[in-house]
Amino acid sequence: MRVMRKAKVNKFAPQIDAELDLHGLYESEAIDEVSEFLLNAEQKKFQRVRVVTGKGKGVLQNGVRTWLLKENYIFETAKITEGGSGALIVKL
Hints:
single chain, alpha+beta, Ribosomal Protein S8, Chain: A, domain 1, 4 strands
């Protein structure tokens, strides 16, 4: 399991409570990590978390997006000030 870390503070964007970086993982590994990360974030009563997939060819981000939709999570592509198109903001 990857370590959940406190997100960097950006004075121009709403607070991000934690961040998970999925760079270097295969899709199946990434989904396992996201599942565990979101469960822990919910238990800690976090409201907004960032999941960094990177841009690449989009395979990882598409897989994570599909899983989030299937699990009924509310999310959006991060704004430029929150990481841009290589990250997703999940609202808990």
